[in-house]
């Protein structure tokens, strides 16, 4: 049967299904996709009914962009206009910091027993985590749109043309997808929602130890090397290149070939944490 919704805003929209998974591969895939979409709609309905968290996340992202651009921009030593250096960095940084909201949502459902109720239903084992990832990715599209509009209003412009600009946004969403699966896995293994403080202690240094706000060339040598090889820095450098915005000057391989690391890092993270998340979800009661 169709998975019952946690929110009254949704109602079953498909015919009843057997309790056991379909026998054929195609039927099982369709079964999993329908269940995942049902869970995506459930999460989206929560944001529609309680938009406060989504609005707060949007305002925080816009505040970070404006704070660094207006308050600190004049003191930053970067090539070219600081807005054009800053906006790609904040776009990518927001994709990484989104891990906190994903972690909190997954772990809260787990702590309140919502996840256990879902696991008792005749639904695909991947539906809950895939639905969460899909909903959070759609939320990230809204965040990117709001930040892009703010950046354009502040004077930032992409100069690379339509196709490179779309490719840059694709890399940003790929990074967000990788962070989604990291957040889902950590949310499933953490002891409670209060563990988000420990997550912040890990995520914030990674976010700021990058080329998002300043050039690694301004850092001490060993620290600059760490910043250059940060997965976040790879996405920032690649999006600046695709947007046609100024980046940091360096002869290192990662600085002169930014797009490939921006693809490889997220794919590696997804390859590791996607199966770990599915496995952890299926083994929650063991």
How would you describe the overall organization of this protein?
The protein is an all-alpha fold. The protein has one domain (25-282). Helices cover 70% and strands 0% of the residues. It has helices at 25-49, 52-72, 82-97, 99-111, 114-119, 127-154, 162-189, 196-208, 221-228, 231-243, 253-256, 259-282. The protein is elongated and about 55 Å long. Mean pLDDT is 84; it is low at 1-19.
In brief:
It is built from 12 helices and no strands. It is mainly alpha-helical and 286 residues long.
How do the helices and strands line up, and which of them pair or pack?
Blueprint: H1 25-49, H2 52-72, H3 82-97, H4 99-111, H5 114-119, H6 127-154, H7 162-189, H8 196-208, H9 221-228, H10 231-243, H11 253-256, H12 259-282
Helix pairs in contact: 1-6, 2-3, 2-6, 3-6, 3-7, 3-10, 4-7, 4-8, 6-7, 7-10, 7-12, 10-12
Features:
elongated, mainly alpha, disordered N terminus, single chain, 70% helix, 286 residues
N-to-C order of helices and strands: HHHHHHHHHHHH
Rounded radius of gyration (Å): 20 Å
Helix residue percentage: 55-70%
- Record field, number of beta strands: 0
Question: How would a textbook summarize the main sheet?
Answer: none
Unreliable sequence segments: 1-19
Distance linking N and C termini:
26 Å
Quaternary structure classification: single chain
Class by alpha and beta content: mainly alpha
Count of alpha and pi helical runs: 12
Shape: elongated
């Amino acid at each position: 049967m169709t998975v019952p919704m946690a929110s009254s805003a949704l109602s079953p929209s498909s015919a009843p299904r057997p309790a056991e998974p379909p026998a054929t591969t195609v039927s099982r895939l369709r079964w999993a996709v329908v269940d995942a979409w049902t869970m995506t709609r459930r999460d989206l309905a929560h944001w529609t009914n309680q938009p406060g968290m989504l609005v707060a996340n949007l305002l925080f992202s816009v505040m970070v962009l404006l704070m660094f651009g207006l308050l600190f921009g004049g003191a930053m030593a970067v090539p070219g206009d600081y807005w054009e250096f800053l906006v790609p960095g904040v776009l990518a940084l927001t994709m990484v910091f989104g891990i906190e909201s994903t972690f909190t949502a997954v772990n809260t459902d787990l702590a309140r027993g919502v996840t256990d109720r879902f696991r008792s239903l005749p639904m695909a084992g991947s539906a809950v985590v895939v639905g969460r990832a899909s909903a959070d990715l759609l939320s990230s599209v809204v965040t990117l749109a709001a930040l892009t509009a703010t950046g354009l209003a502040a004077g930032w412009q992409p100069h690379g043309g339509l196709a490179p600009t779309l490719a840059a946004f694709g890399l940003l969403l790929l990074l967000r997808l990788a962070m989604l699966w990291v957040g889902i896995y950590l949310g499933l293994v953490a002891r409670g929602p209060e563990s988000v403080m420990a997550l912040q202690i890990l995520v914030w240094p990674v976010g700021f130890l990058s080329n998002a706000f300043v050039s690694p060339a301004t850092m001490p040598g060993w620290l600059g090397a760490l910043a250059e090889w940060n997965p976040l820095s790879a996405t920032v450098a690649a999006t600046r290149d695709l947007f046609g915005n100024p980046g940091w000057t360096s002869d290192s391989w990662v600085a002169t070939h930014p797009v490939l690391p921006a693809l490889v890092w997220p794919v590696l993270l997804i390859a590791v944490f996607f199966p770990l998340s599915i496995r952890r979800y299926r083994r929650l009661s063991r």
